Amino acid sequence: MPRREDPPPTAGARPFLLLSIRAEPAAAVDEHRSVLRLGALAENELRAINLTQRPLGHVDLDDWSGIILGGGPYNVSDPIAAKNATQRRVEAELSELTERIVAADFPFLGCCYGVGTLGSAIGAAIDRTHGEPVGPLMVTLTDAAHHDPLFADLPAGFAAYGGHKEAATRLPEHAVHLASSPDCPVQAFRVGTNVYATQFHPELDAESLCTRIDVYRDFGYFDPSEASALQATARATDAQHPPTILKRFTERYRR
Fold it and tell me: Which parts of the sequence belong to the Glutamine amidotransferase domain (predicted)?
């Protein structure tokens, strides 16, 4: 449950809970605004906890319509010696919560870092084999995606924004593979009926990606000298379809 300065939802109102792992204020603020805007949520329909700033505490799933996990610079596949105390704490907290989410088949959408977090919880292989550079990429849906409530009626292939160092190389048999890209075979998957992860970013538009490029230019995702060119490419790309997935998630599970 959030700390006392963030009171629990009032009776009958169940907002969505956004969990952030972004220690960088500009990225964290933009992530919150992007989820509100692209998820078509009112301010009172979204609460946020920045896990780099404070412990998660106990989350009562009954208090929430669903949980959204944003991306960030953490990688679950990092060697344990390379993880600082905050990352180790955050991963332990998310591991416990994700196991409960999967067991309850509770509405969950993990964006980018969600592949590593959810994948680790269900026994997927997570490593650095299929990293992708920051910028636009082409996503191709699987046959299963055309029957999924969040992905149905989207084009068979569409542009999205991505950029990650780790990814899933293998999913367990009970996971439903939903999307791939030329350089990353697992771009999205579902567990059960209500638990999702995407490697690409359904919570990003071009301007938000440009903010991330500014914030993370020295984090090893790209040559810093390429930042302006990457931003120009992002603005020239029509990645209109990924936010549909986020909006469908909030519409489907709002209660």
Answer: 61-205
The string of DSSP codes covering 162-218 is EEES-EEEE--TTEEEEEEETTEEEEEEEETTTEEEESS-TT--HHHHHHHHHHTTT
Residue 139 phi, psi dihedral angles, 5° rounding? -100, 135
CATH 3.40.50.880 fits 16-253, yes or no: yes
Domain spans, the chain: 16-253
Compute CA distances 154 → 112, 157, 160, 228, 249, whole Å: 20, 8, 12, 30, 14
Angle of the 206-215 helix axis to the 227-235 helix axis, nearest 10: 170
Give 237-254 pLDDT, tens digit per residue: 999 999 999 999 999 999
Query: Which residues lie below 8 Å from residue 210, measured CB to CB, with a gap of 6+?
Result: 231, 234, 235
Structure tokens at 33: 């605004």
Q: Which helix (H) or strand (E) holds 129?
A: none
Q: Give 12's pLDDT tier (boundaries 50, 70, 90).
A: low
CA-to-CA dists, residue 247 to 31, 68, 71, 254, angstroms: 15, 12, 17, 10
Q: What pTM does this model have? A: 0.94
Task: Write out pLDDT tens, residues 26-47.
Answer: 999 999 999 999 999 999 999 9
